[in-house]
Structures are given as structure tokens and as C-alpha cells.
Structure prediction request, 213 residues.
Amino acid sequence: MILNKDKALKIADFLLQIKAIKLQPEEPFTWASGWNSPIYCDNRKTLSYPSIRTAIRQTFAEQIKERYESVEVIAGVATGGIAIGALVAEELGLPFIYVRSSAKAHGLGNQIEGDYQEGQRCVVIEDLISTGGSSLKAVEALRESGINVLGLSAIFTYGFERAQKNFEEAKCDYFTLCDYDHMIEQAVNSNYISEHLLDSLRSWKINPESWKK
Prediction:
């Protein structure tokens, strides 16, 4: 879900400018899953650009205050959501914690790092939503620890139907700053790609497992 189209297009423009997102429908990437993909996303690059990471931090903060005004703590998902989550927590003046993919095998065996209280109202920060699997594992870990997860927010999502269903089944609200549809719209607007490639790009989102260039 996108809360503000104009801001979504602006974030898309930033991601394309710094090549945090690359669109190559005629020379697709191969994901670890074996899927052919016209898009590659690495939102960690945003951290290297002060003006862009500031804009992302501020957009997160504005939209979180709008949607989850009672939030008491921000949680980042390891590893991509840690740095941006900490920046968002700083912008909001809130405590920050983060969630490991699994509990540590040594020491205290923590999966959640940082100080928190049972019942605290939390918003989870991610850099990217694909199918939603890793994001929702973090949500589950927080819930099992007694934290009240209000929702999850990410910089970008591919917008797969599977992800939407997974969040619905988990009863977890979410929104993203930008998504695949706004990304390709901005890519055409800025002449990053030609309009004749739109049909191919749109068909990938519908059936990524069997898409071919």
C-alpha cells in the first residue's frame, strides 16, 4: 500500500538515480530463486547519499505518524532494516530495537536486541518486501515477545500478490514508500526506460516465476 503517490514517485526517482534499483527487462537478472527478473533492488545504497537517506527517513517518519500515531518503539529487521530503522527512530524521538533472523546461538540467545517492554506499540521497518516471508518472521518474533506490532513499513515492494496474501493471513498492516508500479511509471517519465517495455515489465509482476524477457 502506498500512502502518497507524489512521494512514491520521488522516492522512485531517488532509487533510480543512485542505481539502488536497476531495470533491465532486455537483459534480466537471475535471482537466487532461479527467477528471471527485469529488476534488481539494493536499498542499502541509499545510506551512502546523505540527502536521499534524509528524505527517506523523513518520509517514513511523516507517514508513520499519520498511520500509527500511538507508536512507542521502532524495530528494524536485520540486516537491511537496521540502519534506516535507527534513523527513523531518531527522527521520531523513539527507542529502537532490532530483530535477528534467528536467535543467537551463544551469549544470551537473543533474537530481539535492545530494551523494550511487553505491550509496547511497535512499527517494524524493512528495506524491501518481496514475498514478505522474512518480514513476517520478524513480526512473529516481536509478537511472541509480547510486543504489540501496529504495522510494518518498507522502502520498496515488488507488489506481488503473494506478499499481500501473506500479510493478510498474518493480520499485519503494512505500507511502503514506493512500489513496483510507481517505479516503472517514474522510469518512463524520466526516460530511464522506453514505454514499449512496459508490457513486459508489468507481466513480470503478475507471474515472476515463469517470466521471460
